Amino acid sequence: MTKARGEDPPVFLGTAEPTAADRAVLLAAPRGYCAGVDRAVITVEKALDLYGAPVYVRKQIVHNRHVVSNLESRGAIFVEELDEVPEGATVVFSAHGVSPEVHRQADERSLKAIDATCPLVTKVHHEARRFASDDYDILLIGHQGHEEVEGTAGEAPGHIQLVQSPEDVEKIEVRDPSKVAWLSQTTLSVDETMETVAKIRLKFPELLDPPSDDICYATQNRQTAVKEIAQSADLVIVVGSGNSSNSVRLVEVALEAGAKASYRVDDASEINEAWLEGVRTVSVTSGASVPEDLVDGVLEFLAERGYPDAQAVQTAEESLIFALPPELRRDMRVAEKARG
């Protein structure tokens, strides 16, 4: 559970405890699962159905502990590295992507690998290889140790250096200032990323942009939505796990947009009732790897404490669907023919 402002709940001096008629709940739309997360979770579910348990998954398939726990109950085994997977077994690579070295290790161990990397992350990998083939120094904006950053960096290890914040820019050294490009982890704060890019461009005016935005559409949409519901909120509750970059960013974006307080919780059990003291408007959203039932649990918690039904605030429509990994689709077709 992330507490955005110290240990104490918000205090509204001189304000009476709001009545039921004063209260409101705003619900961000869009929120929750994005197309890449949906694809990754379904990939593991279909792999369990098709091949039977156990199916191994390298790293968390998505950054949500409830999703991971549910898949574990169905027979998925989550591992940190491939040397924990028996030779010849089935392994799924997470939505965050892996480096070419991980693919090589899978081949070496004769693993049946199913790559559930989000196609938007795969796009960044392609960009890294293209910039490297043109001998650019690549500045990768992201967080040290995040699986996505490790996977992207592995595509061009001799060309990529990590930039974690605008403060890192002054330490950047490149071979040729006229041949510098930037890429980004897909789940960052849009505003903070562009602040970093602007500072890099001041240092390297010929900085080359990626052909399209690296921050994924779902991350941008959820940040836009939380800005809308945070403006008039006494409290913003973000549902998401602590290792979910996009969920953590939503807390920060809510505060920057004007929310009096903002907290991240894995589920309703982590809500502190003291947060609701004096609170009229509660806004609720969730990160891109959060199942909707966890949001429903938060809304039920609020309803039990006298808050009305949530009012949805729609800022974008999402209709994108990604096809399942080709290797899985192929085996599903073979199984279907065998049954027919």
Summary tags:
single chain, 340 residues, alpha/beta, 6-stranded mixed β-sheet, 4-stranded parallel β-sheet, disordered N terminus
What does this structure look like?
The protein has helices at 35-51, 65-73, 100-108, 119-133, 147-153, 190-203, 217-230, 245-256, 292-304, 326-339, and strands at 2-3, 24-29, 55-58, 76-79, 90-93, 112-115, 137-141, 160-163, 180-184, 235-239, 262-265, 281-286, 311-314. With 340 residues, it is α/β, with parallel strands linked by helices. Helix 4 runs parallel beside helix 5. The protein is flat. The protein starts with a strand and ends with a helix.
- What structural class results from the helix and strand content? alpha/beta
The assembly state of the depicted protein chains is: single chain
- How many strands? 13
SSE order in H/E notation? EEHEHEEHEHEHEEHHEHEEHEH
- Order of strands, widest sheet: 1-11-10-12-2-13
Strand share of the residues?
A: 15-25%
Summarize the main sheet: 6 strands, mixed
The whole-angstrom Rg is: 22 Å
Q: Extract low-pLDDT stretches.
A: 2-15
Distance between the termini: 49 Å
Give average pLDDT, whole number: 94
Shape: flat
**Number of DSSP helical runs:** 10
Helix content: 25-40%
